[in-house]
Specification:
The chain has helices at about 10-25, 45-50, 70-95, 110-115, 135-140, 170-175, 180-185, 205-220, 235-240, 260-270, 280-285, 305-310, 325-340, 340-355, 360-370; strands spanning about 1-5, 30-35, 55, 100, 120-125, 145, 165, 195, 225-230, 250, 255, 270-275, 290-295, 320. The chain has about 375 residues and is α/β, with parallel strands linked by helices. The strands form 2 sheets. A 7-stranded parallel sheet has the order 3-2-1-4-5-6-7, sandwiched between helices. Strands 10-11-9-8-12-13-14 form a 7-stranded mixed sheet, with helices on both faces. β4, α4 and β5 (about 120-125) form a beta-alpha-beta unit.
């Protein structure tokens, strides 16, 4: 069997596709798998590193602006779109796939539309509660639409009834043990652990809101706290050092640039604070963690807000919009949750109830069912 995956742009698109492709490869020794992406985004590194064949097309997205620079970019995008259709058809003809799968990103558009026109079975997976433009368009044409959360059904029209499959979560997170993780991090039994991060790059508004909270927490020692400033937050590390932090530590607070043992830290945490990307939320649900979500307002369709509200509407998380974020607001929310153990446990249980831990298997089953 031959399976063609089209995805790119962000890790949120690429990693779930790699998780499913790896599972199919492990369970079907005769599977031939090819990825299509772009040469200038992270799929060009992540896909080959995972051991999969990789080909590229040239494609970009439209910019919603009437500035001269944006207009020039959009003209180039139209030309790239016309060219990418031919490139997609050439790759598809050479590989001759039994099924074509889209996991999001601009690259999915021309590849899946070409596959549909050629009569090849096709399907897409949408990670967010509010689908992107590409998947909204493709949903009307492909054979199957797979969703991370039920809420996405309200925002797209599909050729066939969409199926909720969840989003693949890394095995090390699913298998992490809370007690062992807390012992490894040296968290006392009588202390809560708060974990906060703004993604690998960091989020300046979160770092700014956290600064005073972390300073006060380091002095009072009411609870333990691990915070990541991100790779763009070096200036914050210096600010903490000026306030008496040594190697990022003071009292019960630890400030890092990047969290490279997320499975351990999240397993040990009692409260998680961060953005509302689809992958992060799937991990929070899978591990049954209470969360305070601060959706990024800078993403397409404001989809992180809709992702967060999928939890909030089920009493499975809390949200603070960035426009409302201050140290005082965030501190009140943290203290409110940590002082009400019953509410904290209720949110944890509701988050856990939303988890779909066999997502890889569900998605793989749908893909394979389309092969004639």
């Amino acid at each position: 069997m031959k399976i063609l995956f089209a995805t790119g742009g962000t890790a949120g698109h690429i990693n779930p596709a790699l998780a499913v492709a790896s599972y199919i490869r492990e369970t079907n020794t005769d599977a031939e798998i090819l990825f299509i992406g772009t040469k200038d985004h992270m799929e060009a590194r992540l896909v080959p590193d995972a051991g999969f064949d990789f080909k590229t097309i040239e494609i970009s997205g439209f910019r919603r602006s009437l500035s001269p620079k944006a207009i020039v970019h959009n003209i180039k995008t139209v030309l790239r779109l016309m060219k990418s259709t031919g490139e997609s058809k050439k790759i598809i003809c050479e590989f001759n796939p039994d099924v074509v799968v889209g996991f999001g990103g601009y690259v999915s558009g021309p590849v899946l539309q070409t596959a549909v026109k050629m009569g090849i079975p096709s399907c897409i997976h949408e990670q967010n509660a509010f689908p992107g433009i590409t998947n909204k368009t493709l949903a009307k044409e492909v054979d199957r639409v797979m969703l991370t959360v039920e809420d996405a059904k309200n925002h797209l029209e599909a050729k066939n009834e969409p199926v909720v499959t969840g989003l693949p979560v890394r095995g090390e997170l699913l298998n992490a043990d809370r007690d062992m993780a807390r012992a490894q991090l040296g968290i006392p039994d009588d202390k809560y652990l708060v974990l906060s991060f703004g993604g690998s790059l960091g989020a300046r508004p979160l770092n700014e809101a956290m600064f005073d909270i972390l300073l006060k927490s380091a002095d009072t020692g009411k609870y333990c706290h691990i915070h990541s400033v991100g790779t763009n937050g070096t200036d914050f590390l210096k600010k903490f050092e000026e306030k008496g932090f040594v190697d990022g530590k003071k009292g019960t607070v630890e400030v890092r640039q990047y969290i490279d043992n997320m499975d351990i830290c999240m397993a040990a945490a009692d409260l998680v604070i961060g953005r509302a990307g689809a992958s992060s939320l799937s991990e929070i649900e899978a591990m049954g963690k209470a969360s305070i979500l601060i959706p990024s307002p800078y993403v397409a369709e404001n989809h992180q807000y809709h992702n967060a509200m999928a939890l909030v509407n089920r009493n499975a998380g809390c949200v603070i919009e960035e426009k409302d974020l201050t140290s005082e607001v965030l501190n009140d929310k943290i203290n409110g949750l940590l002082s009400d153990n019953k509410k904290l446990k209720e949110i944890e249980n509701n988050a856990k109830a939303m988890a779909i831990t066999d997502s890889r298997e569900r998605i793989a089953s749908i893909i394979l069912s389309l092969i004639k």
